[in-house]
Amino acid sequence: MERVLTALSHREPDRVPLFLLLTLHGARELGLSIEEYFSSSENVVRGQLAMLRRYGHDCIYAFFHASLEAEAWGGSTIFRDDGPPNAGAPPLKADAIASLAPPRVTDAPGLVRVLEAQRGLRQAVGDSVPIIGVVMSPFSLPVMQLGFDAYLDIMFDRPDLMQRLMEVNAAFCADWGNAQLAAGAHAICYFDPLASPKMIDPSLYRRFGWPAALRALNAIKGPTATHLASGPCLGVVEDLAGSGTAMVGVGGEEELAAVKNRCCGRLTVFGNLNGIAMRSWDEAAAIAEVKGAIDAAGQGGGFILSDQHGEIPWQVPERTLEQVAQATREYGRYPLQGGRG
Fold it and tell me: How far apart are CA 44 and CA 69, in angstroms?
């Protein structure tokens, strides 16, 4: 925990912290299918603790899958054998937004399982390592609630419904984040892929998404990190810095050094190992990528090595994850030998 807190305060700890944001690999640790694994909070506790022992990284990722939030609004989850669960058919229609109320966290069995896992993980590790919870942003959640087409129709044609949806979603987001903090999470990762300029014009984000982020993040009673889930962030980094978040996840298309310089001690950056490319890395590639990221952004603290997306693909071999962890221990020790970040 001390290593992470020091990095977050923009100082150099003993070495660069490593966040392996692993979800699906817990199923393989236990020899279960992905659906079986996420059906029980006890499985996730056992899986996360096994991965913490195996890799010796610097966080526990208490995230199951995004579609659990869609389930809370009446949606469903589609499981597959070799990838993250996806949301089923959108549960909401536009004409329901005017009278829409946020669901209660305790009425959603999937969210309750997440809370049970976070309680178990906190009991197991205490404050030795940060436990990270996850919420979907009010601005990005509607892709699962309504479907992308219907959501864009509202965004462009019905600003009144759009504002109403952002208010309701922000209230749910804050309740869900605070429930996780109360259960045992130390911090909340606020996933907002639609905030990326690669996904939507920044003017629309600033009109609808940023005010909702400000409302939700200020109501969450703990530290938060904003992740654009592989999306570039430089085009909105000033907005993110003003939203109250403490960290920003960096997509694989951006130069870590450039993001680090723009954050200027205001935001800790984390990223941006390419999880897709990681599937085929050999040991030399793992070492080169870890060294490259640390050289780019490690100097002076304010940096946590992680992946680009916020979830490492199922197809990444365990041996590669071990090599990433070992390379971080070897090349991430302060004072760094190189670096331009």
Answer: 17
Identity of residue 61: Y
Spatial separation of the C-alpha atoms in residues 139 and 292, rounded to whole Å: 33
Verify cis geometry, omega within 30 degrees of 0, for the bond prior to 335.
Answer: yes
Record the pTM: 0.95
How many angstroms separate the Cα of 194 from the Cα of each of 43, 182, 199, 249, 282? 31, 28, 5, 14, 33
pLDDT digits (tens, 9 = 90+) for 144-197: 999 999 999 999 999 999 999 999 999 999 999 999 999 999 999 999 999 999
Instruction: Summarize pLDDT for 195-243 with one digit per residue, the tens.
Output: 999 999 999 999 999 999 999 999 999 999 999 998 889 999 999 999 9
Bond before 272 cis per omega within 30 degrees: yes
Q: How far apart are CA 130 and CA 2, in angstroms?
A: 10
Task: Give dist(CA 184, CA 127) in Å, integer.
Answer: 10
Q: Tell me, letter by letter, the H, E, C secondary structure of the chain.
A: CHHHHHHHCCCCCCECCECCCCCCHHHHHHCCCHHHHHCCHHHHHHHHHHHHHHHCCCCEECCCCCHHHHHHCCCCEECCCCCCCEECCCCCCHHHHHHCCCCCHHHCHHHHHHHHHHHHHHHHHCCCCCEEEEEECCCCCHHHHHCHHHHHHHHHHCHHHHHHHHHHHHHHHHHHHHHHHHHCCCEEEEECHHHCCCCCCHHHHHHHHHHHHHHHHHHCCCCEEEECCCCCCHHHHHHHHCCCCCEEECCCCCCHHHHHHHHCCCCEEEEEECHHHHCCCCHHHHHHHHHHHHHHHCCCCCEEEEECCCCCCCCCCHHHHHHHHHHHHHHCECCCCCCCC
